[in-house]
Description:
This protein is an alpha+beta fold. Helix content is about 45%, strand content about 30%.
Amino acid sequence: MAKRGGNLMRINNSRGLTLIETVIALSLIVVLAAAFAGAMTTGLKTENQMNNRKEAVSFAGEIVENLKIRTANNKNLLSKIIKENSYSESSAQIDFSEINNYFSNTISNQSNFYNAVIKYTEKNVGLLEVTIEVEWTANGENYNEKIVTLLAVDLNE
């Protein structure tokens, strides 16, 4: 306030922001930007995980489809693998790396990133429950996906 001729005159300076208002506004912007950045990071991480899961399920599906393929003697590939490697006819657990030579290079190359285990259990004569478990590590975390299906096999000579 200023004194002029004995009267008090008010100074009204409403044309700008005070320093406090500016600091508060900038603080809010920084907090919102940090929250947005955190949400983006989480979103990108989740998207990456989902892409890996999609690839793993696709890999497992390709293994299952290849196990169904008929070989020259009209037996499916799983029957051939069981017979040629002397696996039990009723149940077994096979590491994919032991049998990847039965599969195309496209599938075998994926096994560099994914570890796959093929498990089967006899459900009925000529019918196996086949489980493909795919495991992988990404960003220091372990993940796994599983596909279960029934597959008719002919294990007779």
